[in-house]
């Protein structure tokens, strides 16, 4: 009886081993070919291929025993980034999938180009290109490529905290413009008995200006006020864009803008008690949208210190109906400097 049980155990173990081998042979094998190099050393290419194989194995991909070096290839084969020769090499090693590509140096950049293809398919199912600024960054590039191959889609723009490259930490290049700040002072002359019937408001604002050859953008965040008695027009934000005509020291411009203003209007009305007059004050406050259209000119534009003159029509989108519905709008004249 003991011998019979021992024989049965041996038979079951042999069947388990055979089944495991059959399962292993059924799992698709992946071959990583040597990367073709342009201006990059063969040592770097070998390290990249081995790193890629290790990352794929860590993601559960079944690989051909080890990544190949050029010396490991069959006679007549070489590193390639062409689909047909890559598939031929994969068939020679019994692989169902092949990964191939190139490493190319462009001055300080190393461009990593990778393709992954099932040998039964006509075209790669994965194709990506990632740029590294140093050889030390190639391990992060490899991890990102391995993620993409395992997911089955290109993801050069997808990154984790472990796959951000030095190239991506650099600030993107931008065309240079001139910007600076300046103080504007002037007056708003109400139209149609607006702003509670005052004759004018004194205005003062701090503006930031961004200027390029033919355009300027002026913004006033918070620091803009116009006032007279109890009437106050407070600028929460103004943005004004203008087209500049001319490139000399004196250049006119035409523009328009939008803003958000908080306006308090006070209106005084004369009443009579018998024959004695007295003033009654009423007020209303609104926070709403505003719009401006205007013209102006820049003086000393070729210098880093400019003079600005500005004429605008300023309109606040509120009727102030509790004070007679005359609204808040008028002609704004200002001047100032800008650096």
Compact description:
The strands form two sheets. This protein has an eight-stranded antiparallel β-barrel. It has 339 residues and is of the alpha+beta class.
Please supply descriptive tags for the structure shown above.
single chain; 339 residues; alpha+beta; Rossmann fold; Porin; 2 domains; eight-stranded antiparallel beta barrel; five-stranded mixed β-sheet; 5 helices; 13 strands; elongated
Task: Summarize the structure in words.
- By secondary structure, the chain is of the alpha+beta class.
- The protein has 2 domains: 27-169, 3-Layer(aba) Sandwich (Rossmann fold), CATH 3.40.50; 178-338, Porin.
- It contains 5 helices and 13 strands.
- It has helices at residues 2-26, 42-58, 83-92, 138-151, 166-169; strands at 30-32, 36-38, 97-106, 109-118, 126-132, 178-190, 201-211, 215-228, 231-244, 250-273, 276-299, 306-316, 328-338.
- An 8-stranded antiparallel beta barrel has the order 6-7-8-9-10-11-12-13. Strands 1, 2, 3, 4 and 5 form a 5-stranded mixed β-sheet that branches.
- A hairpin with a 7-residue loop joins strand 4 and strand 5.
- The protein is elongated.
Task: Give the arrangement of secondary structure elements.
Elements: H1 2-26, E1 30-32, E2 36-38, H2 42-58, H3 83-92, E3 97-106, E4 109-118, E5 126-132, H4 138-151, H5 166-169, E6 178-190, E7 201-211, E8 215-228, E9 231-244, E10 250-273, E11 276-299, E12 306-316, E13 328-338
Parallel strand pairs: 1-3, 2-3
Antiparallel strand pairs: 3-4, 4-5, 6-7, 6-13, 7-8, 8-9, 9-10, 10-11, 11-12, 12-13
Helix pairs in contact: 2-4
């Amino acid at each position: 009886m003991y011998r019979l049980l021992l024989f049965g155990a041996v038979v079951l173990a042999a069947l388990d081993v055979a089944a495991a081998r059959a399962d292993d042979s059924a799992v698709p094998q992946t071959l990583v070919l040597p990367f073709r190099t342009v201006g990059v050393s063969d040592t770097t290419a070998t390290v990249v291929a081995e790193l890629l194989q290790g990352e794929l194995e860590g993601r559960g991909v079944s690989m051909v025993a080890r990544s190949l070096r050029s010396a490991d290839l069959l006679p007549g084969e070489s590193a390639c980034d062409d689909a047909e020769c890559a598939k031929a090499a994969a068939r020679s090693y019994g692989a169902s999938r092949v990964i191939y590509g190139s490493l190319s140096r462009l001055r300080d950049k190393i461009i990593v180009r990778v393709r992954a293809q099932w040998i039964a398919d006509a075209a790669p199912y994965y194709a990506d290109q990632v740029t590294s600024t140093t050889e030390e960054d190639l391990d992060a590039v490899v991890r990102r490529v391995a993620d993409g191959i395992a997911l089955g889609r290109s993801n050069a723009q997808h990154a984790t905290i472990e796959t951000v490259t030095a190239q991506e930490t650099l600030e993107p290049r931008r065309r240079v413009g001139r910007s600076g700040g300046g103080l504007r002072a002037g007056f708003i002359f109400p139209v149609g008995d607006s702003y509670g019937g005052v004759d004018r408001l004194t205005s003062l604002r701090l503006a930031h200006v961004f200027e390029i050859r033919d355009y300027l953008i002026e913004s006033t965040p918070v620091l803009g006020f116009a006032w007279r008695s109890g009437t106050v027009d407070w600028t929460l934000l103004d943005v004004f864009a203008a087209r500049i005509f001319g490139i000399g020291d004196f250049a006119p411009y035409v523009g328009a803008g939008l803003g958000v203003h908080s306006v308090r209007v006070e209106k005084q009305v004369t009443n009579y008690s018998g024959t004695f007059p007295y003033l009654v004050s009423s007020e209303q406050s609104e926070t709403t949208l505003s719009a401006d259209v205007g013209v102006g000119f820049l003086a000393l534009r070729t210098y880093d210190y400019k003079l600005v003159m500005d004429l605008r029509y300023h309109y606040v989108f509120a009727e102030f109906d509790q004070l007679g519905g005359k609204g808040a709008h008028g002609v704004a004249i200002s001047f100032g400097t800008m650096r």
